[in-house]
Design a protein that fits this description.
5 helices, 6 strands, two-stranded parallel sheet, two-stranded parallel ribbon
């Protein structure tokens, strides 16, 4: 994946709530283990206020019996819980790190697509076949991360699932896709 900067005209306009939900879903999917590890604290830290310093990094953890590298926030897994009052404006120091991570991480893209799919369709993307997530993530990248196009593709996949396909199979092509 290339790491080219996005021009301001191509940046998606997300509300604070959408950004926090997508970032949280992405970090959760990337690995929020509950087992003991060097990076994990015993209790989740709660940060309150309107200014938050967040350092994104990597550390080894053992979730499945195999050591892996996981994403840590402020050196801990799970990441701190952020609390503020509704309507307050908050400042995230370290937000550029979060944005850079999200832009450069294929796992974050996959988590975003899966979370958006679930939000729209109210059903897991896994129910639409193993290739659906991969196809939607790849076309999201090919479309220069155009969220409107991704939403349209998700709607097409969901609407075509029962109409023209055998049970358990979903066509991930759209009228604009080249034939496979």
């Amino acid at each position: 994946m290339s790491s080219r900067p996005l021009s301001p005209a191509r940046l998606p306009q997300l509300s604070r709530r959408s950004f926090v939900q997508a970032a949280g879903a992405g970090l959760f999917v990337l690995g929020v283990p509950r087992s003991a590890s060097r990076a994990q604290s015993q209790t989740q830290t709660v940060l309150t206020g309107t200014h938050f310093d967040l350092q994104i990094g990597e550390a080894p953890f053992n979730f499945t019996g195999n050591k892996r590298i996981g994403t840590v926030v402020n050196g801990q897994i799970p990441a701190p819980l952020l609390r503020w009052r509704e309507g307050e404006t908050i400042t995230l120091r370290g937000a550029r790190d979060i944005a850079a991570f999200a832009v450069d991480s294929e796992d974050a893209h996959r988590a975003f697509v899966a979370a958006l799919f679930h939000h729209m369709v109210k059903q897991s993307i896994d129910a639409y076949g193993a290739a659906t997530l991969t196809h939607l993530r790849e076309t999201f990248e090919e479309d220069s991360y155009n969220i409107a196009n991704l939403l349209a593709r998700i709607a097409r996949v969901a609407s075509q699932a029962g109409a023209a396909n055998a049970p358990g199979q979903v066509s991930t092509t759209t009228p604009n896709d080249p034939p496979s």
